[in-house]
Design brief:
With about 525 residues, this protein is of the alpha/beta class. It has three domains: about 190 residues, Class I glutamine amidotransferase (GATase) domain (Rossmann fold), CATH 3.40.50.880; about 180 residues, HUPs (Rossmann fold, 3-Layer(aba) Sandwich), CATH 3.40.50.620; about 90 residues, GMP Synthetase, Chain A, domain 3, CATH 3.30.300. Helices cover about 35% and strands about 25% of the residues. It contains 14 helices and 21 strands. The strands form four sheets. It has a ten-stranded mixed β-sheet with strand order 2-1-3-4-12-11-10-6-8-7, with helices on both faces. A five-stranded parallel β-sheet has the order 15-14-13-16-17, with helices on both faces. Strands 18, 19, 20 and 21 form a four-stranded mixed β-sheet that branches. A hairpin with a 7-residue loop joins strand 19 and strand 20. Helix 13 packs antiparallel against helix 14. It is globular, with a radius of gyration of 26 Å. The relative contact order is 0.09. Bound molecules: adenosine-5'-triphosphate, xanthosine-5'-monophosphate (XMP), glutamine and magnesium ion (MG). Magnesium ion binds next to loops. Magnesium ion (MG) binds next to loops. One of its GO terms (molecular function) is ATP binding. InterPro entries: Class_I_gatase-like (IPR029062), GATASE (IPR017926), GMP_synth_C (IPR001674), GMP_synth_GATase (IPR004739), GMP_synthase (IPR022955), GMPS_ATP_PPase_dom (IPR025777), NAD/GMP_synthase (IPR022310), Rossmann-like_a/b/a_fold (IPR014729). Keywords: ATP-binding, Glutamine amidotransferase, GMP biosynthesis, Ligase, Nucleotide-binding, Purine biosynthesis.
Length: about 525
C-alpha cells in the first residue's frame, strides 16, 4: 500500500489557520503537504497532487504585486479548492472580479446553498424554507468576489454576500469565502471530505497502522544493516522514534539517554525501565549531572544557561557516539511543525525570544546521516503512531518537557539543592493534577523555583525560604496559551502538600499569565 499515492497540495498564502487545513485533510486519511504559494512550477508538477487547495491570507488581491497562485495550478487538470484569499485570487486569475468590502466580516455567518454542487452535496446544518441546505460557517475577510469568472456559478450565498461560494464543476474548481478548517464551521470536515474524497477521488490510506508500516519499511530501506544512534529524552517524539526504530531495525539501534541532573523526579529510572527493561531497547544512560551542574555554577542569565546546556548536551552526546563504533546514522524526532516553522524562520524576521535548545541541531560535524521518520507528522499523528506501536497511553500523552529541563525552571543560578526541591514540588503538583483528572485537560503543567525568600510560620517556628510557583496552561500549538483555571480545591491541596512535604519552601503561588504576554516557561 502506498500511503503517499493520493495526496493533496496546499499552497499557503499566509493565513493564521493554514496548518488547520492540513490537519483536517490528514484526519480524513489523506496525505497532504503545505508549501508556500510561490512554490516552483517544476516542484508543483513533480509533487503529483490529486487536488490543490489555495489557503486564505492576510493580503488583498486588489493590491499591486499581491500573491497569485502559480499558473501551472490551472494546467494540472486536477480539482482546485480556494479558501477565502484563495477564492479571491482564483476569481481574479480566471477573469472574475474582487471588490473591497465596505465592512469587514468576522465571525459567524449562515451560508445558503444555491443550486446543486458536488461540494455541498449531502451536507448541511439544517434545511432552509425551500429545502435548501443551510450551513453555519466562520468568516474572516474584508474583500469579496463581486463578479464570477466565466464558467463559474454561485453555489452559496449569505445575507451580505452574493458569492459566499462558487464552482466551475466542469473544470473541478471550487471556492468558499469562509473557513471550513476551523471548528466553528460545523460541517467543515465534511466539506473537506467532499473535496478530497468525492471530488479529487483520494482514498483513505493515511492511517496510523499504514503510517507505521510505511515508516518501518522506509527506515529499513534507508539504514540497511548499519547502526543508528538516537538521543532518547523520554519525551513523546524521541520515545515514538525509539519504538519505531526498535521495531524496524532491532539491535542496530542504540539510544543515549542523558541524565543532566535537570530531569523530573524518577525520570531517568522510568526511561530505563520502559525502554531498556520492558521493550529490550539498547539504552546507554549517560550520567552527566556533575558536568552540567559544574558548568552552570554561578550562571544566572537565562540565555547563557540555555547555551551552556545545549553545548554540554552535544559534548556528552558526542563522547557517547565516539565510544560506539561505526554508527552511520543519527535519528531525530523532528516533526512536521518543526519543518514548517524552520522554513518560515528562514524567510521571516522574527525576534529571538529564547533560544530553544535542541539536541536535534547537533550533527553537522558528526558526519552521520539523519534518520527522521516523523518529519511528515503532526503531534497528534505522532501520538496516534505511538499508540499503534504499543507505547502506553501515559507515555504518549505526557506533557512536553523542554530539553533544558529544570535548568530553565530554576530562575537564576542552578544548584543541586534547588533542583531537588523543585523536583519534589513538581512531582506533588503532577500527582495531584492526575488524581483530580486535570492532567489530560492541561497541555503543560509544572512547578518553578523562585529564588526569592519569603517569611512563613510553621509549628510556631519562623521560616525564611524560597517560593514555588505552579504553572498550568492550555494550548493547541504552544504558540499561544491560556492559564488553566484549576479548581481552588486542587490548588489548595497542592499548596498544603508542597509546603508540608518539601523542606525549604515557604509558600506556593499560582501563575495566572497567558502567552502572550508571558511565555510558557519562566526563562
Ligand atoms: N535528556 C536527554 N537525553 C537525550 N536526548 C535528549 C534529552 N533531552 C532532549 N533530547 C533530545 O532532544 C530532542 C528534542 O527535545 P524535545 O523536548 O523537543 O522532544 P522530545 O523530548 O522528544 O518530546 P517532547 O516535546 O514531548 O518533550 C529529543 O527528541 C531528544 O532527541
Ligand atoms: O525542547 C525544548 N527546548 C527548549 O529549549 C525549550 N524552551 C521552551 N520549550 C517548550 O516550548 C514550548 C513553548 O515554550 P515558551 O512559551 O516558554 O517559549 C513549551 O512547551 C516549552 O516547554 C522548549 N522545548
Ligand atoms: N482570511 C482571508 O483569507 C482574508 C483574505 C483577504 N485578506 C480579505 O481580507 O478579504
Ligand atoms: Mg522533551
Amino acid at each position: 500500500m502506498n500511503i503517499h499515492s493520493d495526496k493533496i497540495l496546499i499552497l499557503d498564502f499566509g493565513s493564521q489557520v493554514t496548518q488547520l487545513i492540513a490537519r483536517r485533510v490528514r484526519e480524513l486519511g489523506v496525505y497532504c503537504e503545505l508549501h508556500p504559494y510561490d512554490m516552483s512550477e517544476d516542484a508543483i508538477r513533480a509533487f503529483g497532487a490529486k487536488g490543490v487547495i489555495l489557503s486564505g491570507g492576510p493580503e488583498s488581491t486588489l493590491e499591486a504585486g499581491s500573491p497569485r497562485a502559480p499558473e501551472i495550478v490551472w494546467q494540472l487538470g486536477v480539482p482546485v479548492l480556494g479558501i477565502c484569499y484563495g477564492m479571491q485570487t482564483m476569481a481574479m486569475q480566471l477573469g472574475g472580479q474582487v471588490s473591497p468590502g465596505s465592512v469587514k466580516e468576522f465571525g459567524y455567518a449562515e451560508v445558503r446553498a444555491r443550486g446543486h454542487s458536488k461540494l455541498f452535496d449531502g451536507i448541511q446544518d439544517r434545511a432552509g424554507e425551500a429545502g435548501e441546505g443551510l450551513l453555519d460557517v466562520w468568516m474572516s475577510h474584508g474583500d469579496y468576489v463581486s463578479r464570477l469568472p466565466e464558467g463559474f456559478s454561485r453555489i452559496g450565498s449569505t445575507h451580505d454576500l452574493d458569492y459566499a461560494a462558487m464552482a466551475d464543476e466542469t473544470r473541478g474548481y471550487y471556492a468558499v469565502q469562509f473557513h471550513p478548517e476551523v471548528t466553528h464551521t460545523t460541517q467543515g470536515k465534511e466539506l473537506y471530505s467532499r473535496f478530497v474524497h468525492a471530488i479529487c477521488g483520494c482514498g483513505s490510506a493515511w492511517t496510523p497502522h499504514n503510517i507505521a508500516d510505511d515508516a518501518i519499511a522506509r527506515v529499513r530501506q534507508q539504514v540497511g544493516d548499519k547502526k543508528v544512534l538516537l538521543g532518547l529524552s523520554g519525551g513523546v517524539d524521541s520515545s515514538v522514534v525509539a519504538a519505531l526504530l526498535h521495531k524496524a531495525i532491532g539491535d542496530q539501534l542504540t539510544c543515549v539517554f542523558v541524565d543532566n541532573g535537570l530531569l523530573r523526579l524518577h525520570e531517568g529510572d522510568a526511561v530505563m525501565q520502559m525502554f531498556a527493561q520492558n521493550m529490550g531497547v539498547k539504552v546507554i544512560r549517560a550520567d552527566a549531572e556533575a558536568l552540567f551542574l559544574e558548568r552552570l555554577a554561578g550562571v544566572a542569565d537565562p540565555e547563557a544557561k540555555r547555551k551552556i546546556i545545549g553545548k554540554t548536551f552535544i559534548d556528552v552526546f558526542e563522547a557517547e557516539a565516539t565510544k560506539l563504533k561505526d554508527v552511520e546514522f543519527l535519528a531525530q524526532g523532528t516533526i512536521y511543525p518543526d519543518v514548517i516553522e524552520s522554513a518560515g524562520a528562514k524567510t521571516g524576521k522574527a525576534h529571538v525570544i529564547k533560544s530553544h535548545h535542541n539536541v536535534g541541531g547537533l550533527p553537522a560535524h558528526m558526519r552521520m546521516q539523519l534518520v527522521e521518520p516523523l518529519r511528515e507528522l503532526f503531534k497528534d499523528e505522532v501520538r496516534a503512531l505511538g499508540l499503534e506501536l504499543g507505547l502506553p497511553r501515559e507515555m504518549v500523552f505526557r506533557h512536553p518537557f523542554p530539553g533544558p529541563g529544570l535548568g530553565v525552571r530554576i530562575l537564576g543560578e542552578v544548584s543541586k539543592p534547588a533542583a531537588d526541591t523543585l523536583r519534589r514540588a513538581d512531582h506533588i503538583f503532577i500527582e495531584e493534577l492526575r488524581k483530580a483528572g486535570w492532567y489530560d485537560q492541561t497541555s503543560q503543567a509544572f512547578a518553578v523555583f523562585l529564588p526569592v525568600k519569603s517569611v512563613g510560620v510553621t509549628g510556631d517556628g519562623r521560616r525564611y525560604e524560597p517560593v514555588i510557583a505552579l504553572r498550568a496552561v492550555q494550548t493547541i500549538d504552544f504558540m499561544t496559551a491560556h492559564w488553566a483555571h484549576l479548581p481552588y480545591e486542587l490548588l489548595d491541596v497542592c499548596s498544603r502538600r508542597i509546603v508540608n512535604e518539601v523542606p525549604g519552601v515557604s509558600r506556593v503561588v499560582y501563575d495566572i499569565s497567558g502567552k502572550p504576554p508571558a511565555t510558557i516557561e519562566w526563562e
